[in-house]
Structure to design on (195 residues):
């Protein structure tokens, strides 16, 4: 709910600021840094829960013509901690909470679709630090390991100038390690500064 209110507030601010914001130029190439905060949800395996997620990325984009830029990125995401749902735990299993955070490396794109408005996309490798524990068939298993899977996402937002934008994003992080499935979906608000 808080994420939705933040997104609505930022969108409203963008609409109100449009008349005074400088018209965004076509060139979105160069270095960038962005941060995001939002809601991470897990509905997989033993878990059906949500928590606050946050992260940051930095990278570089090359201009590919009017209103389009493609680039590379690397970053860190903390996707939260989740408790298992009792009705999802098999009779011979006891499960504890699970935590997920990790590093990303991938590609991205920024595409202007109208004056100041843009669509974005990203995808790449997610090297996750997975922590959790469970007991199955009387055998305790403590998971504290890394998972090398993938992430992908899309978003839209508003460019206040050639150097500053805000957006609303959806990202998916694929994670599976030692039978601990915690694939995560994140809806977040982001801000980006370009140099």
């Amino acid at each position: 709910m808080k994420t939705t209110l933040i997104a609505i507030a930022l969108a409203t601010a963008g609409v109100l600021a449009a008349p005074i914001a400088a018209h965004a130029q076509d060139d979105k190439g160069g270095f960038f840094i962005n941060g995001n905060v939002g809601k991470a949800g897990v509905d997989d395996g033993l878990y059906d829960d949500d928590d606050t997620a946050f992260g940051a990325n930095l990278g570089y984009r090359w201009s590919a013509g009017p209103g389009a830029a493609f680039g590379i990125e690397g970053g860190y995401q903390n996707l939260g901690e989740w408790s298992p749902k009792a009705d999802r735990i098999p009779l011979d299993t006891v499960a504890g909470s699970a935590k997920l955070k990790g590093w990303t490396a991938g590609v991205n794109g920024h595409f202007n679709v109208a004056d100041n408005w843009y669509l974005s996309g990203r995808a790449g490798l997610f090297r996750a630090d997975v922590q959790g524990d469970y007991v199955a068939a009387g055998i305790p298993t403590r998971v504290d390991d890394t998972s090398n899977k993938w992430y992908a996402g899309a978003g839209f937002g508003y460019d206040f100038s050639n150097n500053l934008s805000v957006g609303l994003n959806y990202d998916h992080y694929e994670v599976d390690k030692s039978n601990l499935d915690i694939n995560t979906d994140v809806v977040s608000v982001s801000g980006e500064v370009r140099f």
Observations:
- The first strand starts at residue 30 and ends at 44.
- Residues 1-25 have pLDDT under 50 and may be disordered.
